[in-house]
Amino acid sequence: MSTHYLSGWRVDVERREGVPRLLPAAALARAVAAALDAAGAPRPASIGLILSDDAELAELNAAHMGKDGPTDVLSFPLLGPDEYPDHPGKGSGGLPTPDADPDGFALPPGARPHLGDIVVSVERAVDQAGAGRGGQTGDVRWDARDELRLLVTHGALHVCGWDHADPVEEAAMRDLERRLLA
Questions:
Q1: Which fold has domain 2-91+112-181?
Q2: Taking the mean position of all CA atoms in its chain, how far away is CA 169?
Q3: Fewest CB atoms within 10 Å of the CB: 44, 71, 78, 154?
Q4: pLDDT digit string, tens, across residues 141-175
Q5: Model's pTM, two decimal places?
Q6: How far is 116 from 132, CA to CA, in rounded Å?
Q7: Could you state, in order of their start, the residue ranges of all structural domains in the chain?
Q8: Which helix (H) or strand (E) holds 48?
């Protein structure tokens, strides 16, 4: 695992054994930090990024989303949507987040709250890019590194409460992703 400190964020990047290295962990951490900045995530804070494969994503997809087969990215937010600024991409669905502690749990001095974790199938990124099914719209042919940056950005936005369940949310999220990747 590698840890990267960027503008108040601690981004822990873990690459599972056997997963290809398409981009340096530092570049992926920068993509996560840019998405957190754009989403107005509270800082200082930490977030985890796990680079994995289709097998692990299929297991997580079944266990947490009730869906068969692999997916490209899953996000596991730990803070509720009210911890983030309102925006047109703010979803109401997705994975449940833990209920806030009614007593206002305080972290020890100097500790960073953990925003959540992002798990990306690098295998899926390579496949989607190679088949021209990238770009979240499923019709973009680009390099697998670009697809991986998009999936990392997409996952970070999901941690921050962004969603694409309805057309307004989707348009806002896609617009922000395009700006962040430009």
A1: Collagenase (Catalytic Domain) (3.40.390)
A2: 16
A3: 44
A4: 789 999 999 999 999 999 999 998 899 999 999 99
A5: 0.88
A6: 30
A7: 2-91+112-181
A8: strand 45-52
